[in-house]
Amino acid sequence: MAVWIQAQQLQGDALHQMQSLYGQHFPIEVRHYLSQWIEGQPWDGIDLENPQEEIKAKRLLDSLIQELQKKAEHQVGEDGFLLKIKLGHYASQLKSTYDRCPLELVRCIKHILYTEQRLVREATNSSSPVGSLMDSMSQKYHQINQAFEELRILTQDTENDLRKLQHNQEYFIIQYQESLRIQAQLSSLATLPPADRQLREPSLLSKRATVEAWLTREANTLQKYRLGLAEKHQKTLALLRKQQTVILDDELIQWKRRQQLAGNGGPPEGGLDILQSWCEKLAETIWQNRQQIRRAEHLRQQLPIPGPIEELLTELNSTITDIISALVTSTFIIEKQPPQVLKTQTKFAATVRLLVGGKLNVHMNPPQVKATIISEQQAKALLKNENTRNDSSGEILNNNCVMEYHQTTGTLSAHFRNMSLKRIRRSDRRGAESVTEEKFTILFESQFSVGGNELVFQVKTLSLPVVVIVHGSQDNNATATVLWDNAFAEPGRVPFIVPDKVLWPQLCEALNMKYKAEVQSNRGLSEENLVFLAQKAFSSSSVNPEDYRNMTMTWSQFNRESLPGRNFTFWQWFDGVMELTKKHLKPHWNDGAILGFVNKQQAQDMLMSKPNGTFLLRFSDSEIGGITIAWVAENPNKAGERMVWNLMPYTTKDFSIRSLADRISDLNHLLFLYPDRPKDEVFSKYYTPPLCNLYSKNHYMYIALNVRVYVLVFK
Asked: Which one of 18, 45, 238, 366 has the fewest beta carbons within 10 angstroms of its own beta carbon?
C-alpha cells in the first residue's frame, strides 16, 4: 500500500506530526496530488553531500514542476478551476524556492518520506515482532545517519578552522617579512651620517618592537589554533573509528553471516547498496580529514613553531592511514560466493566487489584480481601473516579478472564467469576424516593505489569453505560438511574451526532451513517431524520434545557413524528424503498429503483405528530416498482380523516411470488418505489423463498391482 494512503489514516499525535512536515517550503496539496509520482522517484539515490549530484536533483525538480503543471491543466469545472490556479501557483513557488538549490528539495522530500514511513510503521506494527524488528532496524539506520551528519558538521568545522589558520598564518608571514624589512633598514642606518641615523633610528626601533611583540603574541595564537585544530581532528577520528566499527564489524559482518546462512537455504543476504553508500560516506569523510591533516602538516612545515604539534600531526596522520586501510581491506568482499561443493573439471563463477572503489577512483586504473584455491592450513597461515610462498592447493583455469566499474550502479566488481578447477592437491587427513570433510577456500587477491599512488593497498579475501569432489556420488557427504560449517561457524574464527557437537535444537533449525530451501516449500518440519528425527538420531522412543532440548549431537553421529542396523548415516537418510521430495513429491508435501516422518509402528497405531482402505505415506526407514504406502485392510489369512500392509518403498527410479499420484490411483484398495480424506479429492488433480497413456502404438500402460508393476505392451 502507498505510504500516503496509510499516512492519511494516522490519528492523534502521529497525524499532527505528519501535518507539521508541510508548509510553504512544500505544500501538503502537492504531496496529495502527486503522491504516486513522488513515491516512485529515486530520492535515496542522490547523495546530498556531493555537489555533482545537483544535476540529478535539478532534473527531479523540473520533473516535479512539469507533473504539477500537467495536473493543473487537467482540472475542469468550477472546483477544478480553483485547484488549477492553486497547483499552478505551487509550481511557480517551488521553482522559485529550489531552482538555485535543488538538493534542498531532495533533502526536504527525503525527510518527509522517511518521517511518514516511520509514523506509519509505529502506528501499524508497534505490537508485532516484525514491526519491532523494523523499528529496531530503522532506529539503527537513523543512528548511523545521525553519526554521519555529526561527522559532516565536524569535518566542515575543521575545514573552516583550517582556512582561518591558513589566513592567519599568511598574515603572520607578511608581518614577519615586514619585521625583516625593518631589520634591514636598521642595518642600513650604519652607512648614514650620525645625525640622520639618530633621526630615523628611534622610529624604526619602535616599529620593530611593536612588530616583534605582535609576532610573539600571534605565534602563540597560531600554536593554540594548531593545537585546537589537532584536538578537533582527534575527536573526528575517534567518531570515525566508532562509525566504521559499527558499519564494518556489525553491519558488514552480519551481511556476511546472512550470506553464509543463505548457503544453507536461509533467506537471501540482501543487497549491498545501503552498505556501499555507508562505506562510500566513510571513505569520503576519511579522505577529507586526511587531506586536512596533510594541509595542516604543510602549514607547520611552512612556518615551524616549537611545540608538541609535530608529534600530534604525525599521530593523526598515522591514525587516519590506519582507518582508511581498514576500510579498504574490509570492503573487498565476495558478493557472489563460488559453489561450496566444487567438482573438478566443472565450470563455476564468483563475483568480487570493492565497496569503496568508485568513491576512491580505483577504477581509473582498473586493478586485476587473481583467484587461487588454498587449503585450510594455508588459510590459517595467511591470516597469521605467515609466509605461504604463494602456495596453492590446486590449479584454477581462467582465474584472473579485471575489475569493471559500472557507471549506472557505481559498483566496482570483478565477475569470474568461467573458472574451472583443473586439479586439486589434498593434504594428509586427520584420523577418520574423509575427503568430503576436507575444506578448502578460494583466495581472491588484488593490489591498487588511491590518491595518485599516495597509498598502495594489497587486499585479500577468502571465500566460504569449499569441499572439492571428483564424482557426483561424493556430493551427499560434501553437502553435510558444508551444512555443518555454515550453520555453526563462529564469526572471526580460525579457518575453518567448527564445534564438534551442537545442541539438538540448533541442528533442527539448520535442518529445517535446508529442507524448506531444497524442497522449495513454506511447509517446513513440524515439531512432530523433529521428534521423529530425534528418535532416529538418538535411537530413542520418547515422544516428548522437551526430552531432546538439552541433548547434543556430534559430527560423527551426524555423518560418520551409521545408524543402528543400517549402512547409512543420519544425514545420508535425511538428504535422501530431501532429494526424493524435491524431485517427485513437492506438490504432495505442500498439500500436506505426505506425513513422511512416521515410523512403521506409529503408522500401524494410527491406521488401526481407521476404516479399511485408509492409507498414509511415510518415508522408508530402511532405504535412502524411499517412500512407502501403509494401509489398513483385512487379513486374508484370518477372517475378521485386520492388519496394516506396507508396500516396498518407491524411489526416484520408480517415479521416473510413473508418478506417485498415478500409482495411488492404480491401487483400488486405497480409499482414504489418513485420517479420512477420499484419495481422489487429494490426488486427482495430479493424475495423468487416461488418453495420454494410449495416444499411439508401441506405448506402455502401467498397472500397479500390490507391490509390483507389470508392463503390458500394446501393439
From this structure: 238
Q: Find out whether 595 and 617 touch, Cβ atoms under 8 Å.
A: yes
Cβ(504)–Cβ(578) below 8 Å:
no
CA angle 433, 504, 492 (to 5 degrees): 60
Distance between CA atoms of residues 529 and 515, nearest Å: 12
CA distance linking residue 191 with residue 576, whole number of Å? 110
> For the whole prediction, is pTM greater than 0.90?
no
Helix or strand or coil: residue 269? Answer: coil
C-alpha cell at 681: 479429492
Alpha-carbon distance values, 73 to 40, 64, 170, 394 (Å):
22, 14, 60, 70
* CB neighbour list of residue 497: distance below 8 Å, 6 or more residues apart: 490
Q: Report DSSP letters for 364-420, one per residue.
A: GSPPEEEEEEEEHHHHHHHHTT---TT--SEEEET-EEE-EEETTTTEEEEEEEEEE
Contacting residues for 316 by C-beta, under 8 A, at least 6 apart: 230, 233, 234, 237, 293
Asked if 621 and 603 count as a contact pair (C-beta separation under 8 A), the reply is no
Identity of the amino acid at 153:
I
Q: Say how far apart CA 297 and CA 310 lie, in whole Å.
A: 8
What confidence tens digit (pLDDT) does each residue in 591-639 have?
A: 899 999 999 999 999 999 899 999 999 999 989 999 999 999 988 888 7
CB 457 within 8 A of CB 436: no
What is the C-alpha separation between 515 and 573, in angstroms, rounded? 13
Residues in the chain: 715
Composition of the chain by helix, strand, coil, percent to 5: 55, 15, 25
The residue type found at 397 is: L
For residue 489, which phi and psi values (nearest 5 degrees)? Answer: -70, 140
How are beta strands 332-336 and 400-402 bridged, if at all? unpaired
User: Of 571, 682, 687, whose CA–CA distance to 616 is shortest?
Assistant: 682
Which stretches within 245-342 are classed as H helix?
253-262, 273-302, 309-330
CA–CA gap between residue 587 and residue 521 (Å, rounded): 9
Neighbouring CB atoms inside 10 A of 47's CB total: 18
